[in-house]
Amino acid sequence: MKLYEFELIFSLPEAVGSDDDIVNALFEAGCDDAVAGIGKRGRIALGFSREAANAEWAMISGREQVCKAVPGAELIEAKPDLVNLSEIAEILGYTRQNMQKYAANPGKTAFPSPVHSGAPDIWHLHDVLSWLRGQKNVAVDEGLIETALAAARLNAEARRRHFEAASVSRRLAV
Fold it and tell me: What is the Cα 93 distance to its own chain's centre?
């Protein structure tokens, strides 16, 4: 078993009970390895430090426990996944300027393309970490790459579910 650190953010149903009720239900459901943050109305974020056979199982079990404890809760985002250069630098203990140098990449292989170009550009963390390890020989913890990939998969699944539900709602409305 290996320790994985990640964050899961959920939307909460309207009639969910008090913050204390939610935190108690989460603890009883097995989320005793998470720190809950309830700062934004209708949302909860849980920072997990969970032992599991792999990162994906750690995240899936966390999601299932939250959904059991708070029926109607929906996963909004799993982290670490979508990041900007400053966040990548913080995760790796680098400066933002150092990450900008990598992104400018005067070498033979191009820095991974962002999934969103804007202010700021956004990347999938696992793409950048894998590139840094493979192309620049940067020592990157395999567990972090595994966690970032698992978060990206959970996010893709959550988006798929969201769009399927929207499609069904739209067909019913017509």
Answer: 19
Distance CA 135, CA 150 (A): 22
The pTM (predicted TM-score) of the whole model is 0.89
The Cα–Cα gap between 50 and 127 comes to: 23
What dihedral angle (degrees, nearest 10) is formed by the CA atoms of 141, 100, 120, 128?
-30
Distance CA 81, CA 145 (A): 10
Q: What are phi and psi of 25, to 5 degrees?
A: -65, -40
Q: Do domains 2-79 and 82-140 have the same CATH topology?
A: no
Contacts of 19 (CB under 8 A, 6+ apart): 38
**pLDDT for the residue numbered 33:** 98
Residue 18 sits at the vertex; the CA angle it makes with 27 and 81, to the nearest 5 degrees, is 60
The topology (CATH level 3) of 2-79 is Alpha-Beta Plaits (3.30.70)
Neighbours of 85 (CB within 10 A): 21
Would the pLDDT of 165 be above 90?
A: no
C-alpha to C-alpha distance for 86 and 94, rounded to whole angstroms: 9
Buried/exposed code over 126-159 (b: 16+ C-beta within 10 A; e: otherwise): bbbbbbbeebeeeebeeebbbbbbbbbbbbeebe
